[in-house]
Specification:
- The complex is a heterotrimer of chains A (302), B (225) and C (440).
- Helix content of chain A is 25%, strand content 31%.
- With 302 residues, chain A is of the alpha+beta class.
- A seven-stranded antiparallel β-sheet of chain A has the order 7-2-8-1-14-13-15, covered by helices on one side. Chain A has a five-stranded antiparallel β-sheet with strand order 9-10-11-12-16. A four-stranded antiparallel β-sheet of chain A has the order 4-5-3-6, covered by helices on one side.
- Helix content of chain C is 34%, strand content 13%.
- The chains are: A alpha+beta (302), B mainly beta (225), C alpha/beta (440).
- The interface between B and C is large, with 47 and 35 residues.
């Protein structure tokens, strides 16, 4: 059970302010999700190679040692931007996703890969949303679009790994509000298909399902639509994509979803008051997504 | 006239002030600076005139008694839920469960209402000038639901005795719901409601839907050997 | 054959009661509906024993050395928490399921002993509010009869997500009990077989429940405690979420908890035993630093003072009784055997309360039968029963050296069976073994 907020900027001149606009939206969702928080920000696109967000339990993990090791292994510059208070770092490296994931799994299993892509960064942590976003300096971030989530854990532990958004592929992520009811069997089936899970979390299973469908060649729209038949339970999903985001609600649609659109942005929130301070909100088009329908912006789920 | 600015004071202070008034108190209250807060003006029990300027969150005017509440904006989940009497008028759109379980009074929504409009309603009247979402009037027991626009899937599923009037299209009817005859008393009832809600429309343009009453009692066979 | 056959042997899978049920289903085409809680034997409080004082512990003298029994409920947020003299409350039972005389009797008995009663599905009756000094008002998915005037008259509000007999199910009241008065209170046509919704109409999930609780507090000006009641299933997570949603008090009802009417399959096959849910609830509260700050009331098959003491020892703040209270009033009493026989039943076995023909006059709306239920006598009997329960609990507590029932702890208990030891998380008697590794 949780809060989800999302902001997609149509107007590029607002990119520098995305963190400033988004930080209060996260804090507004504190009551819905006091346990932990996370967000996926898209920006700072790499022109060569890929970008990974890495996290470790200890705030004082020696990221630069890892950087040196990767540089000597891969030969060539490796960039490591460290969030010193949060046990997280953004790694930019000229390598394949499979290659670097496999290297890290074998040589550094203590490091978690939170996201992979050319522009996505997924950052999450335990504690109140306000504390988590301060740790990462969200208010000063720049980017084109961002999805955030505040968590009230339902049937699994409160951990960083169990926080949303979950990565579901290159530049893809999922945030979920609701509670699934058939995720345990589905997890076993997906594990047989080679999908890895780190938690007992139902949302992680939904993310794993999407990852699998996309790997099998579905378009994002097809994958989301098929999830209506395969996933049982209550859900509002917000999916971050390389160029935008998508929203889908289950057919019963009990979990909330409010959207706002102006010429400058499209915004999503579980409760309207998270949107109330956005510029131009007084004249925004406000609506609620219909159940069992894929909505998308940015072209990735047409 | 009392004016309250929610950017300066809290919803708690506003509600307490409204609750402290005697049950026969009259007067005008204006609430400015509303930015989606929950439970604004809920639990009023006096014939006040309350105007809320801005969008409200969940349960605006919840359990309203006697008051006339106007919201110049949209509202979140459960506006006027369990209202007993009085009138609530939403100038914008309403989210889910508008008028849920309401026993009396009139709820008017100028825009659209989302899913479950009038769910489990128990005698109130709801007039929506726009359209309503799916599962509206689910298990509705009594009262009238008037929709000038369209209705979503499963209208009136498992309902009891609500009179549902829809002018536009109904995406699908819920379990045990059928179209019913518009007789003179229904035309009159609908006409009065439209007029009360300030809607200039001809009842003859509406269709009536109601319970087929097949679910009222368990069906028990008697296949004795 | 030279030896005599040992006699008829029943097939345990196709026992005769199972055969009867298949015959009934084939005849009617509908599930069996009945009242009461789970009938099958499950690990229960009788499987636990107390370690009384001896050499290492010293007992307290009865009568002279006090063993206090009071409890305060709702200290977290409410301006007016509830002070009870005894930690046994009367659980929610609806007017509709019970008649007005029975509700009045419950109120009288509870008042005498300084405890609370609870309304049920269908709303608050004036008699109930008049006769019950401390009244908890249930806020249910159906919202039958729910209104803000009654909400404000209540001493506490219990948001019901479910009950032990049917976690995940809604209420049920068959046509024969929907009299004029019941129909009017519930805004239903007379004589329908009423089924209540299983989810609340205007919120789903603990995140939205938190907003609903805020609304209820706003409407009652934050004066009264808000309880959240759940049927025992995934109790560890449910209790944590109830705390996060803002509860002052949490009520957990095990599968032995009764109902006036629901499908038999629901009662017997959904939910976990009361014994199993208490340690889960307590662990959840302890991990959040909320044990004793958000109070825990436990119900479902509590019958005597030993049960009360065991619940307290496992960490509950109080218990609630439903079925037992009805029995104290006279439910299933041998005096009505002739009436039970006429209904193809016998005293102690009757559970078709949904039919509204209860010879004891408690779960019927029939005025003639209900007249047999004398509220004053019923009130005295309930008070006597409550008094006896509390005396029994005190006797046990003193024997364990406690000057307050709250000071009973899990270490005062041992179990007779492996199942009870695993569920209650206390050692098997004579050993230090607690079976099971849990992920909770």
């Amino acid at each position: 059970m949780c809060g989800i907020v999302g902001l997609y900027l149509k107007n590029p001149s607002l990119h520098d302010e995305i963190g400033k606009l988004f930080a209060p939206m996260m804090v507004a969702m504190t009551n819905r999700g006091p346990d932990s928080a996370g967000f996926a920000v898209y920006g700072d696109e790499v022109s060569e190679g890929i970008k990974l967000t890495l996290q470790h339990e200890e705030a004082d993990y020696l990221w630069h040692e890892l950087q040196a090791e990767l540089e000597s292994t891969y030969g060539g510059a490796v960039q490591m931007d460290v969030y010193s208070e949060a046990g997280a770092a953004v790694l930019k490296i000229n390598a394949s996703e499979e290659g670097i994931r496999s290297y890290l799994e074998t040589n550094h299993p203590e490091v978690s890969v939170m996201s992979v892509g050319v522009s996505i960064e997924i950052l999450k942590g335990m504690g109140l949303p306000e504390d988590v976003i301060t740790r990462f300096g969200l208010a000063g971030m720049k980017g084109s679009h961002i999805i955030g989530h505040t968590r009230m854990a339902t049937e699994s532990a409160v951990t960083t790994e169990g926080s949303h958004p979950f990565t579901t592929g290159m530049d893809l992520c999922l945030a979920h509000n609701g509670s699934l009811s058939n995720h345990n069997r589905l997890r076993v089936e997906l594990q047989r298909e080679g999908i890895h899970f780190n938690t007992e979390n139902d949302s992680e299973v939904a993310a794993g399902y999407l990852t699998w469908r996309l790997q099998e060649g579905d378009t994002l729209k097809q994958a989301l639509e098929s999830s209506l038949d395969v996933l049982d339970g209550f859900f509002t999903f917000v999916v971050g994509t390389q160029n935008g985001f998508a929203v889908i609600r289950d057919p019963i649609a009990c979990k909330p979803a409010v959207m706002a659109e102006t010429d400058d942005y499209v915004a999503f929130a579980s409760e309207y008051h998270a949107l109330a301070d956005l510029p131009g909100i007084e004249n925004a088009k406000l609506w609620e997504p219909e159940p069992a329908t894929v909505y998308s912006w940015g072209g990735d789920a047409e | 006239m009392t004016t309250v600015d929610l950017t300066q004071s809290s919803v708690r202070e506003l509600n307490q002030a409204l609750h402290d008034l005697p049950k026969d108190a009259t007067g005008e209250w204006t609430v400015n600076g509303t930015k989606g807060e929950h439970a604004v003006a809920c639990g009023i029990d006096a014939p006040l005139d309350v105007t809320i300027n801005g969008h409200a969150g969940y349960y605006a005017a919840g359990m309203n008694q006697q008051a006339n509440v106007v919201i110049n904006g949209n509202v979140g989940v459960g506006v006027a839920e369990n209202m007993m009497s009085g009138r609530v008028h939403v100038k914008g759109n309403a989210s889910q469960a508008a008028g849920a379980t309401a026993h009396g009074g009139l709820l008017v929504i100028d825009g659209d209402a989302a899913a479950r409009c009038g769910i489990s309603m128990k005698g109130a009247n709801i007039v929506v000038k726009g359209s309503i979402g799916h599962m509206s009037c689910f298990m509705g027991q009594a009262g009238c639901l008037v929709v000038c626009g369209d209705a979503g899937d499963a209208l009136g599923d498992s309902m009891y005795e609500v009179h549902i009037y829809v002018k536009g299209t109904v995406k699908s009817l819920g379990a045990d719901v059928v179209e019913k005859e518009m007789r003179a008393e229904h035309i009159e009832e609908l006409g009065n409601l439209l007029s009360e809600a300030g809607v200039d429309d001809d009842p003859a343009n509406f269709k009536r839907y109601g319970s087929a009453r097949n679910l009222y009692n368990f069906h028990i066979d008697d296949a004795k050997l | 054959m030279t030896t005599k056959h040992p006699g008829l042997i029943e097939n345990p899978t196709f026992r005769r009661d199972k055969l009867w049920e298949i015959d009934r289903a084939a005849e009617t085409g509908i599930y069996d509906i009945r009242g009461g809680g789970a009938k099958r034997k499950v690990p229960h409080f009788d499987d636990l024993l107390f370690l009384g004082a001896s050499v290492s512990r010293y007992p307290l003298e009865g009568y002279r050395e006090k063993c206090a029994t009071d409890v305060v409920l709702g200290t977290r947020f409410a301006k007016n928490p509830i002070h009870l003299d005894i930690p046994v409350t009367i659980a929610g039972m609806s007017f509709g399921a019970l008649n007005a005389n029975a509700k009045e009797a419950l109120g009288r008995g509870a008042n005498k002993m300084g405890t609370s009663t609870t309304t049920g599905d269908g709303g608050m009756t004036p008699e109930e509010r008049g006769h019950s000094k401390t009244l908890v008002y249930q806020y249910l998915p159906s919202r039958y009869g729910m209104n803000p005037d009654d909400l404000r008259k209540a001493d506490a509000i219990e948001v019901v997500l479910g009950q032990g007999a049917k976690p995940g199910g809604g209420g049920m009241l068959l046509g024969q009990k929907i009299t004029d008065r019941v129909a009017k209170m519930r805004t239903l046509p007379k004589g329908v077989d009423q089924r209540s919704a299983c989810r609340h109409p205007d919120w789903t999930g603990p995140d939205d429940l938190a907003v609903k609780i805020t609304e209820i507090r706003e409407i009652t000006d934050w004066k009264v405690p808000i309880y959240i009641k759940v049927g025992a299933t995934r109790t560890y997570y449910d209790v944590k979420l109830a705390v996060k949603a803002g509860a002052d008090v949490i009520v957990v009802d095990g599968m032995q908890g009764g109902t006036a009417a629901t499908q038999d399959v629901f009662i017997e096959h959904v939910g976990i035993p009361t014994l199993a849910c208490i340690p889960l609830a307590v662990k959840a509260l302890q991990e959040m630093g909320m044990h004793r700050k958000v109070q825990l009331i436990v119900s479902g098959g509590i019958t005597n003072g030993a049960d009360v003491a065991k619940c307290m020892a496992l960490g509950a703040d109080a218990v609630a009784i439903g079925t037992a209270a009805m029995v104290a009033l006279g439910d299933n009493h041998p005096k009505f055997e002739k009436g039970f026989n006429e209904l193809n039943s016998s005293y102690g076995y009757y559970d078709d309360w949904h039919e509204g023909r209860d010879p004891a006059g408690i779960s019927t709306q029939d005025p003639e039968l209900a007249a047999g239920m004398d509220p004053e006598l019923g009130g005295r009997r309930l008070a006597n029963y409550l008094q006896c329960m509390v005396l029994e609990a005190q006797t046990i507590a003193r024997a364990c050296g406690k000057n307050h029932l709250h000071n009973l702890e899990p270490e005062d208990l041992v179990a007779l069976t492996v199942e009870a030891a695993a569920m209650a998380r206390v050692p098997l008697a004579g050993t230090s073994w607690i079976p099971g590794q849990d992920k909770y």
